[in-house]
Amino acid sequence: MQNNEELKLALLIASIAMLMMAFFVISFVMYYQKKRFEEEKKISDIEKNYNRLLLDTALNSEETERRRIAQDLHDDIGTMLSLTKLSLNQLSKMIGTTGDEKEDQIMKKSQSLVEETILHVRRITRDLVPTTLERFGLLEAIEEFIDKLEEDNNLVISFQANTEEFPRQGQKLELTLYRIMQELVNNAIKHASCSRIEISLESTEEMIGLRVTDNGVGFDPEKIKENNLAGLGLLGIESRLAIVNGTVQYEKPLNGGSSAFAQIPVMPIAENKPEPLHPFRRERVNI
Amino acid sequence: MLEIYISYFARQPLASIPVFLTLIPIVLIWKRKAYLDRTFQILAIYLVAKFAIDFIMFDWASQKKNTVVFYNLSVPVRYILTSWMFYNKLEIKRYKNWLLLSVPVFTSFSIWDILNTNPSLSDLHNHKMVLYSTTVESLLMLFWILLYFYNTIRTLKIPNLLTYPFFWVCSGLLLYYSSFLFIAPVLHYDSKWEQWLDMGFLSYVPYIFECVSIVLFSIGISQFPSPRYAK
Ligand SMILES: Nc1ncnc2c1ncn2[C@@H]1O[C@H](COP(=O)(O)OP(=O)(O)OP(=O)(O)O)[C@@H](O)[C@H]1O
Ligand SMILES: [Mg+2]
């Protein structure tokens, strides 16, 4: 009988030990799995941040480079053109005294050519760097952009914002929105063969939304991504948005055409000083 | 009929509860459509088979008949079905082959064990519980469960184990077989119809952990419908 009792005790202890081991195994698996996942997540976060930094740097240097080109155009060629204009004016005065009909005509022609070139250079520099954007903000810049487009296309472009006074945002945010708007409108003109484009800007406390709608042929962004048809435009929009945590959705309105809606969370305005012109900044990336 | 059942239930509550508790995961699998998952389809088959066998045992036990023959038969059936689940879940070909090999080997072993412990099969009244099979089964299953855990840790495919149904099933099986491992060989002596060895409370431990494992199965199944982690 005593043997029996001992056997029971031994069995009890062995079973308890086994169960404890089972519990231990289960908790260990759970703990280890969780820890590994956290580590993995940290690594992927670091990678994501790193990629974002790279993108940001690339875009920044692109903007800086544009700025440099615009500056060079303005300072070098612009100055030279002004000087040319001045000399031509002098020349025309001198020729004017002799009063030859034909010479006078050539003179006029060169003068107007130089004038036109000056205008072109100014337009190009302004296209390269959206000065209106920097000085007067998004609303003005978009309006200016539209005016220029409507001049030489028979397109109707409408623009509305949900607030009369659109508060100034950080420079990067404004530039991002502006460039996205530019690409979306350009796409609509290039691909949609539409007659109307509507741009609307909605701003709330936390979000700024930009919607560009056209009444053209419409497209399926999924298909375009799948078939690798996306050009630089759509990809560029996505990478610009990735930097500012924004999102973009493409919709198909019921009455045809296509509509893109980009949303960006409002960021606190960083120091508002303009980018240094040149030499362009290289950011060191540390991991 | 019902009276006999109720009186048996009152006499042996711990042995009877798991029989009916099995219905919960079966209903849950049906309600949550867990049977769409291949592994849980097998679990459903296993649970239904278990319920059928357990209920017949319950019926016979309430009529004071020896039910050990059903228990002995349920051992290979249980092993075939549970290991089949792991066959589905294990991903490495080599392990799968081992598991596949273990099924016929274990089945023949348990049949040999039944014949060995019961030289005269027709004498149902004195039918004895298998001596080795349950222990071997527990060892094998523990091995497969640990192997599965090891693989989950290594491959890192499941972001949250707590919402992963099969993890709960594994935990239930792990607890059940761990509690069973040492008690199983003694049950052979405990469950003899004559000259039995009284183990007292210990003989109820398997029933308790059967309940625990069934509850864990149910928790696992209630995680359905869960996102498929098919990365
Ligand atoms: N508004 C639109 N209407 C119809 N199709 C569009 C529209 N916007 C884009 N698409 C389609 O999506 C494709 C990808 O556009 P995306 O801007 O990425 O490239 P792209 O305009 O062809 O080239 P890039 O912008 O680099 O000069 C286009 O080729 C066009 O077929
Ligand atoms: Mg484009």
General description of the model:
The complex is a heterodimer of chains A (287) and B (231). Chain A is an alpha+beta fold and 287 residues long. Chain A has two domains: 1-129; 138-287, Histidine kinase-like ATPase, C-terminal domain (Heat Shock Protein 90, 2-Layer Sandwich). Chain A is built from seven helices and five strands; from the N terminus they run H-H-H-H-E-H-E-E-H-H-E-E. In chain A, helix 1 (2-98) packs antiparallel against helix 2, helix 4 (138-151) packs parallel to helix 5 and helix 5 (171-192) runs antiparallel to helix 7 (232-243). Chain B is mostly helical. Chain B is built from nine helices and no strands. The chains are: A alpha+beta (287), B mainly alpha (231). The complex binds adenosine-5'-triphosphate (ATP) and magnesium ion. The site of adenosine-5'-triphosphate (ATP) has 18 residues of chain A, from helix 5 and helix 7.
Tell me the CATH architecture of the largest domain in chain A.
2-Layer Sandwich
- What's the pLDDT, averaged over the residues of chain B? 87
Overall geometry of chain A: elongated
Number of strands of chain A: 5
What would CATH call the class of the largest domain in chain A?
Alpha Beta
Number of strands of chain B: 0
Determine the strand fraction of chain B and express it as a percent band: under 5%
CATH topology of the largest domain in chain A, anyone? Heat Shock Protein 90
Which regions of chain A contain 5 or more consecutive residues with pLDDT less than 50?
276-287
Number of helices of chain A: 7
Spatial strand arrangement across the major sheet of chain A: 1-2-3-5-4
User: What's the N-to-C terminus distance of chain B?
Assistant: 53 Å
| Total discrete domains of chain B | 1
Global structural class of chain A: alpha+beta
The major pleated sheet of chain B works out as: none
